[in-house]
Write a structure and sequence with these properties.
Chain lengths: 404, 541, 636
C-alpha cells in the first residue's frame, strides 16, 4: 500500500475517534493516564494558574510548567483543540518512527512504511492513552522525534527535543547517553555484524555541554513561568519520591503503598538507582547498534519507571517493528503475546472489580500488574536475546546456539 | 477571745467572698420551644461574667502571670485561657444532624456534627499562634475528655469571612488571627458532660443545671454542648456554657402524644435554686393558635413566651404543656429556613466522584450566601469542573470564588470560600468533580472499610448588597434582620477510600522484588555470558 | 574400585561428552515426550473439566455456611414487632387493595404512599421517571421516605424496599401489595426506636425493575442517557446494605432468598447467611434458595425405576442442589438480576430479596415483620462495609455453599486444555514434518517410522489470520447493531431469518477472498484455529473471575467443538461442518427470539452486557471455528 495514501487515512481515522465522546470515559482511567500525565489535572492546573493561584502549591497538578505556559497562553485547551493536538502528536510520532525506519534501512521510502505507521497508530497501548488525552503521548512523540533527528544527525535539534522530553518526564534522562552515542555513530542495522565502537568517544563532550545548556535554558524558562522553584519538587520530585499512590500498570505504586514507613526512603533510592544500572551495559554490549540500545532502554523504562502508563510499553512494542531482522531469532513470541493478551484483559477487569464493583480487592489488580510486568519483561528479554543471537546467524543441521 | 477570732476569720472569708462576688456574676437560663414537627428544643445557657477582666496579651506570655482567684468563674478553663492568651474561643461537641428544614434555625448557631473548635488569638510575643493553638487543643482535649488533639494541621484552617469574632478584640483586629478546625467523627457522650458540669458553680445539684440528666439528654434526637468565651469591651470576659437538645415527646410518650413536662422529658424536676445564680430563668415558647394548657402558672407571660423565675415560683418546679384535644398530630414539612441545602457525594466508585449541592432559596427575594468548604486532603477538588445550574440551564455567573487554598497531603486541608447568588424561589445546583486519593496502608484507620467522615460545609445567607432595595422593602428588612450572620451547617459526608490489603506487606515486597530481580538477573545473564555453538547430533559411535 | 552398579549410575548421571550437548539432548527428549503426550493430555484436561462441572452439586464438594463478619451478631436481639403493627399492616393492605380495585394510576398510588410516610413523621417524596427504549417508553412514579436516626450523623443508611410488581414470573403483573404494606407498617414501627446507628430509607418502587433503577441511579447522581427521572429532593448517607421485601401471596410457608445482581455480581454471603439464621431462629421460618421447596418430590422418575434409585437420599440431594445451581447459572450467566435487589448491586450495595413463597400458611405479617426487624438490627450492627472477600460463592443449598476453589477449576481446566490445543496448533503451523524423497513414494507403514523425515520451518500467516478474526468480530458488531434496531423488534418473523441467513452467507465470502497461498506458508485454517483457541481460552479464564456462570457455559459450549474443529478434504463435509458451527454461533438469533428480546431490553434499561458479549465476543469466536472447518486445509 502506498504510504502517501494510508498515513493520512490512518490519522484521519484517529481524529474521528478523538472527536468522539469516547474520550470522556477514558480520560480518568488509571491505566491510560498517571497523575503526572492526566488531562483533568492539567486542566485543573491551568484553571488555578489563570485564577492567580500557584498550581504547584497543591498536590493535584504535576505537569511541566512548559505545558502550563503553552496551554494558558498560546493554545486554549478545550475539547476540539485537544482532539487535534493529541492526534497531531501521534501523527508526528508515527511519522518519526517511519523516518527512523528509513534512516535505518538507508532508503528514501519502502514498502513497510505504512505497516510501521499502522503499528504505531493502531497499537491499542498507544492510541487508547492518546484518546484518554494523557500527555504521555506527547512524551512518546518527543522521544521518537529526538531519536529520528539523531538518526538524521541533526544534533542540536535532537538534543533540544530530548531536553523538552526530560522537562515532561525525568526518567527519560536514561536516553541521554545512547542518544549522544547515536549522534556520533550510524543508525543503520549492524546487529548481524558487531564491531567495536570506532569513532572517538570524546566527541560527545561538546554535545553533552550543548544538552546541559538546553536543560538550563528550559528550566530557567519554567522557573520564570511559575515564579518559584516549587515545580521542581512537584514535577521531577514526584518520579523520585512517589508522593501520589494512585494505581498504575507499573510496579511502584502497590509496593510503596504496602511499604513500612521507615524503609520507604531506602527502597525509593534502590528503585531509582536500579533504573540507571542498565544504561552502560546495554550501550557497551550494543555499541555496534546504538539505536537498538535505545530501544531496549525504552523497554526497561516501560517496566520500571515510577508512573508508567500503557503508552510506555506501547512505544516499546511499536518500535519492535523497526527491527524485523531479529524476528526469526525470537525465542518465544507466542508466550509473550499471550502474556500481553492476558495482562491487557486482566488490568481493566481487576481495576473495575476492585474500585467500582467492590467484589475484588487491591491484590487482584496488583496481581494483574505483575502479569503485565512479566509480559513486558518477557518481551524485553526476548529482544535482547534475538539482538545478540542474530550475530551468529543460521547454524547448520544438528547444531544449536546457547550461552554458557 | 476565741470566739472573736472565729468571728473575725468568718467575717474575713465572708468579706473575700463578697469581694469576689462583686467581680463575677452567674446567670442561667433554660429556653424550651416546641418545633413544627412535634419535637421539643431545649437550650440550657450558663454564663459567667468576669467583670472588668481583659484577655491576656501574648507579649506577656514570657513573664509571670497575675494569680487567678475565682469563685464562680471556672478555674480550669480560666487557666487555659490565660496560659495560651486566647481572646475568643468557641468549642462545640454535637451528635446528630440539625434538620434546618424541619426545626428552623437553632438557638446556638454552632450545630455542625462532631467537634468544632475555633479561636481568635493575638499575634506577637515569643510564642507563635500555631504553637499556642496546638497547646490549646490538647489542653481542651484533656479538660473535656474529647479527642480534640487530632484537630491537627491537617484539619486547621483560617476562614475569617465565616467566623467573625462574636465579642470584641482588644486594641483593634489588626494583629489577631483565627484558627478553626472540625472533627466530624467525634461523638459527644457522658464522658464529655461530666467535666462540663464540673465547670458550673452548682454542678448539677441545684438550679436549672439539675435537669441535665445524662440518661435523657443522650437519648435525644439531637444534642450538643458548647463552650463560648468572648471578651466584651464594656463588661469583661464572659464564659458561656451551653447545652442544646432536641427531644421527641411523641417517641418518649406511651400514648404517642405531643404533651411534655420537665419530669417527662428530663425525668427530673427543679427541687431547689442555685444560690449563687444572679438570675435563673425558664422561658417557654408558647404554641401559636393551638388549644393548650401550661402548668404551673408562670411568673410572667405574653403572647409568645411564658417565663418562670425559678427563685420565685414554688418548688419542686415541673413545667408542662398539655394539648387536651389533640388526637393525631399531622407533621408539617414546610421548610423553616430562608435557604435549604443538600450536599451529597455522588458516584459509587472509589477513585472519583462528584460533590453535588442543591441550594434552594425559599424566599421570594434574591438572597446571597457565603459558601465555605474546609476539606481534608481525603477529597480533592477539580475546581475547573465547578458548575452551577438552575433547572438545567448553566448559570456559572451566580458563583463568585473568593479564595481557594489547594490541599497538601499530610500538611493542610483545602479551603474554599465562595459567594452564591440565589434568585428568588429557585433551586441552584452546584456540582464539582472530586478525586479520592490512595493512602499507604499505615495511614488507614482500624475500620478502614467504613470510610472517612468529611466536615460539614458552612453557609452564611445574607441579602443582596444593594442598599436602596434594602431600605425600600420592609419584608427584606425583616429577612435581613434575622438572616444576618446565622451559620448553617450541612450534614457531614462519608467518603470511602480504596483500601490495600492489610495483610500483604511482606508478600508484596517479596513478589515485586522477585520479579525485578528476575528481570535484572536474566538481562545481565544475556549480556555477560558468551555464545557457543554445540553439535547436538548423536556422535557416530 | 567401586561396584559396577555405581559406575553405571554415575555414567548415566554424568556421561562423557559435551555437557551442553547432553543437556540439549535431554531437553529435546523431554520436549519430544511432552509433544507426543500432548493430545492425550488435552483429552484428559477436557474430560476432567466437564466431569468437575457435572459434579458441582455433589454433597461432597459443598461446605456449611458460616458468619464471617463478627459485628453482624445475627438473631441476638429481642424483637418488638407485635400485633398492633400487624394490624396496621392489614389496614394498609385494605387501603392498597382499594387502590388496586379502582385501578388507580401510579401517581395516585405514589401520592398515597408519600402521605402515609409523612403521617408517620418521615420526610417523604415521590419521583417520576420515564425510560425510552427501542420498543416504546416506560413511565412510573416511585415513593420514598427517609428517617434520619436520632443522634446518628446520617452518613450511612439502610434501604428497605418493595417493588409495586412482585418478582413472581419475573414481574408478570402480580402485585406485591403485602410487601408494600409491610414496608409502610415498618416505617411507622421502626421510627419509634432511637437505637438506629444508620438512617433508614424506605423505597416503594413502581413497576418491577425499572422503578428502582430510576431511583437508585438518581440517588447516586448517575445519569443514564435513555432515562428521564426527577432528581431526588431528599438525600441521606452512603448505603451499604438493603433488603427488598416481596410478599405476593396471601400467606407463606418459607422465605426464599434471591441474590443474583446485574452482570453476575453477587452480594456478600454474610448477608444471606445471617438472614438464614435469623429467619430460622427468630422467625421460625425456614429459608429456601429461590422458591425451591425442599419437601417436594424432586426427581420425577418414572415408576418402573427401581426403589433403590427412586428414594436414594444421596441422589435426591444431588438433584435438589443441581436444581439450585441451574437456576443460579440461568440468572448469573445472563447477567440478569433475580429481583429488585440486583439493581442496587451496581453501586456496591449488598442487597437481597426476601420472597415469601406463597402457601396456605402458616406465616404472615407477624413473622416477616419480626424477621425484617431483626435483620435490620443485624445490618445496623455493621461498623464497616461488608468486605471480607466473601463475594465468590455458589449457594447450592440454604446452609451449604461452594468456595471459589471448588468450582472455578472446572471452567479453567477446559480453558487450559484449549490453550494447549492452541499452542499445539501454533507449533504445527510453524513446523512441518517433511519426508525424505526416498520414503515419500513408499507405503503407509514406512511413513509412521520416525527418523525418516525431518522437521522443517515454514512461515505462519499470522497477519492473515488476525485479519480474519478481526473481520468476524466486526461482523459481530454489525449483528449487535441490527438486533438493537426497532425494525428487528417489530417484525418478529422475517427479521430473525433475515439476520441469521445473512450471518450464514456472509462468512462464505472469505472463500472467494482467500488468495492462493504460497506453498512454504502454513495453511490458514491451522493458524486461525490456533489463534482462535488461544483467544477463547484467555476469554474464558478471565471471564470466570467476573462471572463464573457465563464462563462455565461458554467453556461447556465451546470446549470440545473448538478443540476439534478441523478442515477436511471433502468439500461437502466441510460445508456440513460449517453449517453446524454457524448454528452453534448464531443459532440463537433464529431460535431464541424471546431470549434475544429480553437480553436487548436488559441492555438498554439496565446496561446488562450479556447481549453485546454474545454478539461481539462469543459468536465470532465460534464463527472462527466454523471458518476453520470451511477453509480448504492444504493449499495443494
Amino acid at each position: 500500500m502506498d504510504f502517501i495514501v494510508t498515513f493520512p487515512a490512518l490519522v484521519a481515522g484517529r481524529l474521528v475517534l478523538a472527536l468522539s465522546p469516547l474520550t470522556h470515559y477514558l480520560r480518568d482511567d488509571h491505566l491510560l493516564s498517571s497523575p503526572l500525565t492526566s488531562y483533568s489535572r492539567l486542566q485543573e492546573g491551568i484553571y488555578l494558574f489563570k485564577h492567580g493561584i500557584d498550581p504547584y502549591s497543591g498536590s493535584t497538578f504535576r505537569h511541566s510548567p512548559l505545558l502550563l505556559s503553552l496551554f494558558s497562553t498560546v493554545i486554549p485547551l478545550n475539547e476540539v483543540t485537544a482532539a487535534f493536538l493529541w492526534t497531531a502528536s501521534d501523527a508526528l510520532a508515527a511519522w518519526s518512527l517511519v523516518r527512523i525506519w528509513r534512516a535505518r534501512q538507508n532508503v528514501s521510502s519502502s514498502s513497510r512504511d505504512s505497516l510501521i505507521a499502522g503499528l504505531y497508530l493502531l497499537n491499542p497501548y498507544t492510541f487508547l492513552p492518546s484518546l484518554g488525552q494523557s500527555t504521555s503521548s506527547f512524551e512518546n512523540a518527543l522521544c521518537l522525534l529526538s531519536l529520528m533527528l539523531a538518526c538524521q544527525k541533526q544534533a542540536s535539534a535532537s538534543l533540544l527535543a530530548l531536553a523538552f522530553l526530560i522537562q515532561l518526564s525525568l526518567p527519560s534522562i536514561l536516553l541521554l547517553l545512547p542518544l549522544l552515542l547515536l549522534l556520533i555513530s550510524e543508525p543503520t542495522s549492524h546487529l548481524a555484524s558487531p564491531f567495536f565502537f570506532k569513532t572517538d568517544i570524546r566527541r560527545i563532550t561538546p554535545l553533552a555541554g550543548q544538552f546541559a545548556a538546553y536543560i538550563l535554558l528550559l528550566s530557567g524558562a519554567a522557573t520564570l513561568v511559575c515564579g518559584n522553584l516549587n515545580w521542581v519538587e512537584k514535577t521531577w520530585g514526584a518520579s523520585l519520591t512517589l508522593p501520589d499512590l494512585t494505581p498504575n500498570p507499573g510496579l511502584w505504586w502497590y509496593f510503596f503503598t504496602e511499604m513500612f514507613d521507615h524503609f520507604r526512603p531506602f527502597f525509593l533510592i534502590v528503585f531509582s538507582v536500579h533504573l540507571l544500572i542498565y544504561v552502560l551495559p546495554l550501550c557497551i554490549k550494543f555499541q555496534h547498534d546504538i539505536l537498538y540500545a535505545c530501544y531496549l532502554l525504552l523497554g526497561i523504562l516501560s517496566i520500571f519507571k515510577a508512573y508508567p502508563t500503557l503508552s510506555d510499553p506501547g512505544l516499546f512494542l511499536s518500535m519492535l517493528s523497526l527491527f524485523p531482522e531479529t524476528f526469526p531469532y525470537l525465542h518465544h513470541p507466542i508466550v509473550t503475546a499471550l502474556l500481553h493478551l492476558h495482562a491487557a484483559l486482566l488490568l481493566p477487569l481487576f481495576h473495575y472489580l476492585w474500585l467500582n464493583q467492590g467484589t475484588g480487592n487491591a491484590n487482584f489488580f496488583y496481581a494483574s500488574t505483575l502479569v503485565f510486568g512479566m509480559a513486558n519483561g518477557a518481551a524485553l528479554l526476548d529482544s535482547i536475546w534475538a539482538g545478540l543471537r542474530i550475530a551468529i546467524g543460521e547454524v547448520k543441521e544438528e547444531h544449536e546456539v546457547l550461552q554458557e | 477571745m476565741r470566739l472573736s477570732v472565729k468571728s473575725f476569720l468568718c467575717s474575713l472569708c465572708l468579706g473575700t467572698l463578697a469581694v469576689a462576688r462583686l467581680s463575677e456574676e452567674f446567670n442561667e437560663e433554660l429556653h424550651l420551644r416546641p418545633l413544627p414537627d412535634g419535637k421539643l428544643a431545649a437550650r440550657f445557657s450558663f454564663s459567667t461574667l468576669l467583670k472588668g477582666a481583659t484577655p491576656r496579651h501574648p507579649e506577656t506570655l514570657g513573664v509571670e502571670d497575675e494569680s487567678q482567684l475565682y469563685t464562680l468563674f471556672p478555674l480550669a478553663l480560666g487557666q487555659i485561657l490565660r496560659e495560651y492568651a486566647v481572646t475568643e474561643l468557641h468549642l462545640t461537641l454535637n451528635a446528630g444532624n440539625w434538620n434546618y428544614d424541619r426545626w428552623g434555625y437553632p438557638d446556638e448557631p454552632g450545630v455542625g456534627t462532631g467537634a468544632e473548635l475555633w479561636a481568635w488569638m493575638g499575634e506577637g510575643g515569643t510564642v507563635t499562634v500555631d504553637s499556642r493553638w496546638r497547646g490549646l487543643r490538647n489542653a481542651l482535649a484533656g479538660l473535656f475528655c474529647a479527642s480534640l488533639g487530632s484537630l491537627d494541621e491537617q484539619r486547621t484552617t483560617s476562614p475569617v469571612l465565616t467566623f467573625q469574632p462574636e465579642g470584641s478584640l482588644p486594641n483593634g483586629n489588626a494583629s489577631y488571627q483565627l484558627r478553626h478546625a472540625t472533627l466530624p467523627s467525634e461523638h459527644v457522650c457522658t464522658e464529655n458532660l461530666t467535666p462540663f458540669l464540673k465547670l458550673l458553680p452548682c454542678k448539677s445539684l441545684s438550679g436549672i443545671a439539675s435537669l441535665l440528666n445524662p440518661h435523657k439528654l443522650f437519648d435525644a434526637d439531637w444534642h450538643g454542648l458548647g463552650v463560648h468565651v468572648r471578651y466584651l469591651e464594656s463588661a469583661g470576659v464572659e464564659v458561656r456554657l451551653a447545652f442544646q437538645a432536641v427531644f421527641d415527646p411523641v417517641r418518649a410518650a406511651s400514648d404517642k402524644r405531643r404533651d411534655w413536662s420537665l419530669s417527662a422529658v428530663f425525668d427530673r424536676r427543679i427541687e431547689r435554686v442555685c444560690p449563687v445564680a444572679r438570675s435563673s430563668v425558664i422561658r417557654v415558647r408558647l404554641p401559636q393558635n393551638e388549644v393548650y394548657a401550661i402548668i404551673p402558672s408562670p411568673s410572667t407571660m405574653d403572647k409568645t413566651y411564658a417565663t418562670y423565675i425559678v427563685q420565685e415560683v414554688g418548688k419542686p418546679l415541673d413545667v408542662a404543656i398539655i394539648r387536651p384535644e389533640e388526637t393525631l398530630f399531622e407533621y408539617l414539612i414546610e421548610p423553616q429556613t430562608h435557604i435549604s441545602v443538600h450536599r451529597t457525594l455522588n458516584g459509587a466508585s472509589q477513585h472519583a466522584g462528584q460533590l453535588a449541592l442543591t441550594i434552594t432559596n425559599n424566599h421570594d427575594i434574591q438572597l446571597q450566601t457565603g459558601y465555605l468548604e474546609t476539606m481534608p486532603w481525603l477529597l480533592q477538588f477539580y475546581l475547573h469542573t465547578l458548575h452551577a445550574h438552575i433547572d438545567g440551564m448553566p448559570r456559572d455567573d451566580l458563583v463568585k470564588l473568593i479564595s481557594y487554598i489547594p490541599p497538601l497531603p499530610h500538611v493542610q486541608p483545602a479551603l474554599l470560600q465562595a459567594v452564591l447568588t440565589l434568585p428568588p424561589k429557585t433551586t441552584l445546583w452546584l456540582t464539582m468533580d472530586v478525586v479520592k486519593p490512595f493512602l499507604a496502608y499505615t495511614e488507614h484507620p482500624p475500620d478502614a472499610q467504613r470510610g472517612w467522615d468529611l466536615p460539614p460545609a458552612v453557609f452564611v445567607p445574607f441579602a443582596s448588597q444593594n442598599g436602596s432595595e434594602t431600605d425600600s422593602d420592609p419584608q427584606l428588612h425583616a429577612v435581613l434582620s434575622d438572616v444576618r450572620s446565622t451559620r448553617m451547617y450541612t450534614p457531614v459526608l462519608l467518603v470511602d477510600l480504596a483500601t490495600p490489603d492489610f495483610s500483604m506487606p511482606y508478600n508484596v515486597i517479596i513478589m515485586s522484588c522477585t520479579l525485578i530481580a528476575l528481570i535484572f538477573g536474566m538481562v545481565f545473564n544475556l549480556l555477560t555470558r558468551q555464545f557457543v555453538v554445540v553439535r547436538v547430533g548423536e556422535q557416530s559411535s | 574400585m567401586p561396584p559396577a552398579i555405581l559406575i553405571k549410575i554415575r555414567k548415566y548421571l554424568r556421561p562423557d561428552g559435551d555437557k551442553n550437548a547432553i543437556r540439549i539432548r535431554r531437553r529435546r527428549k523431554l520436549i519430544g515426550a511432552l509433544w507426543a503426550s500432548l493430545p492425550s493430555v488435552i483429552v484428559v484436561l477436557l474430560a476432567v473439566g466437564y466431569l468437575w462441572m457435572l459434579s458441582i452439586p455433589f454433597p461432597a464438594l459443598g461446605q456449611r455456611t458460616y458468619i464471617d463478619e463478627n459485628a453482624l451478631q445475627p438473631g441476638q436481639v429481642n424483637t418488638h414487632w407485635n400485633w398492633d403493627d400487624v394490624h396496621r399492616a392489614d389496614r394498609y393492605l385494605e387501603a392498597l387493595e382499594q387502590l388496586r380495585d379502582r385501578n388507580a394510576s401510579s401517581v395516585e398510588v405514589a401520592d398515597y404512599l408519600a402521605t402515609e410516610f409523612r403521617r408517620a413523621g418521615l420526610s417523604a417524596d415521590t419521583q417520576e421517571y420515564s425510560f425510552f427504549t427501542t420498543n416504546g417508553s416506560k413511565t412510573g412514579v416511585n415513593a420514598y421516605a427517609t428517617f434520619s436516626s436520632p443522634r446518628a450523623s446520617g452518613t450511612e443508611a439502610m434501604v428497605i424496599s418493595a417493588s409495586w410488581l412482585s418478582r413472581t414470573g419475573e414481574g408478570d403483573g402480580t402485585l406485591n401489595l403485602r410487601g408494600v404494606s409491610t414496608v409502610l407498617s415498618l416505617a411507622w414501627f421502626l421510627r419509634g426506636y432511637s437505637l438506629w446507628a444508620k438512617d433508614l430509607i424506605f423505597v416503594v418502587s413502581d413497576g418491577y425493575l425499572e422503578g428502582m433503577q430510576a431511583w437508585v441511579t438518581e440517588y447516586h447522581g448517575v445519569s443514564q442517557p435513555n432515562l428521564q427521572a426527577e432528581p431526588l429532593r431528599l438525600s441521606s448517607g452512603v448505603i451499604w446494605t438493603a433488603l427488598n421485601i416481596d410478599y405476593p401471596g396471601h400467606s407463606f410457608s418459607h422465605l426464599g432468598v434471591f441474590f443474583e445482581g446485574l452482570n453476575g455480581r453477587l452480594p456478600n454471603q454474610d448477608l444471606i447467611n445471617s438472614f438464614q439464621r435469623i429467619s430460622l431462629y427468630t422467625g421460625g421460618v425456614p429459608m429456601l434458595v429461590y422458591d425451591h421447596r425442599d419437601d417436594v418430590e424432586i426427581l420425577g422418575l418414572p415408576s418402573w425405576t427401581p426403589e433403590s434409585i427412586r428414594d436414594n437420599s444421596e441422589l435426591k440431594e444431588y438433584a435438589r442442589r443441581a436444581k439450585n445451581v441451574v437456576r443460579h447459572v440461568a440468572y448469573q450467566a445472563r447477567g440478569q438480576a433475580s429481583g429488585v435487589h440486583g439493581l442496587l448491586h451496581q453501586f456496591r450495595i449488598d442487597a437481597i430479596t426476601l420472597f415469601a413463597v406463597p402457601a396456605t400458611g402458616p406465616h404472615g405479617f407477624h413473622a416477616i415483620g419480626r424477621i425484617v426487624e431483626s435483620t435490620l438490627r443485624t445490618m445496623n450492627n455493621l461498623l464497616e462495609r461488608l468486605h471480607a472477600s466473601f463475594f465468590f460463592f455458589l449457594l447450592v443449598g440454604p446452609t451449604t455453599f461452594l468456595k471459589i476453589g471448588s468450582f472455578l477449576p472446572s471452567a479453567v481446566l477446559i480453558s487450559v486444555a484449549m490453550m494447549f490445543c492452541g499452542l499445539q496448533g501454533w507449533v504445527k503451523a510453524g513446523w512441518v514434518w517433511m519426508l525424505d524423497e526416498a520414503q515419500a513414494t513408499k507405503d503407509e507403514k514406512v511413513h509412521k517410522r520416525v527418523g525418516n523425515g525431518r522437521w522443517s520451518r515454514r512461515q505462519r500467516p499470522v497477519l492473515k489470520a488476525v485479519m480474519v478474526m478481526a473481520a468476524t468480530h466486526g461482523l459481530g458488531v454489525v449483528v449487535f447493531y441490527l438486533l438493537t434496531r426497532s425494525w428487528y423488534l417489530h417484525n418478529s418473523t422475517v427479521a430473525p431469518l433475515l439476520v441469521s441467513s445473512l450471518l450464514a452467507v456472509l462468512p462464505l465470502t472469505s472463500l472467494l477472498l482467500l488468495p492462493k497461498q504460497p506453498a512454504q506458508e502454513a495453511p490458514l485454517p491451522v493458524m486461525l484455529k490456533s489463534l482462535n483457541l488461544c483467544l477463547t481460552s484467555t476469554v474464558i479464564s478471565i471471564l470466570s473471575v467476573l462471572n463464573f456462570s457465563l464462563a462455565a457455559v461458554i467453556a461447556f459450549l465451546t470446549g470440545v467443538p473448538l478443540c476439534y474443529a478441523s478442515s477436511s478434504a471433502r468439500s461437502e463435509l466441510r460445508i456440513a461442518k460449517y453449517m453446524a458451527y454457524t448454528t452453534l454461533a448464531f443459532g440463537w438469533v433464529a431460535l431464541q427470539r424471546y431470549e434475544v428480546l429480553k437480553a436487548v431490553a436488559n441492555w438498554e434499561l439496565l446496561g446488562v452486557w450479556f447481549a453485546p458479549f454474545m454478539c461481539i465476543v462469543y459468536a465470532p469466536l465460534v464463527l472462527q471455528a466454523a471458518l476453520v472447518c470451511l477453509l480448504p486445509s492444504e493449499s495443494a
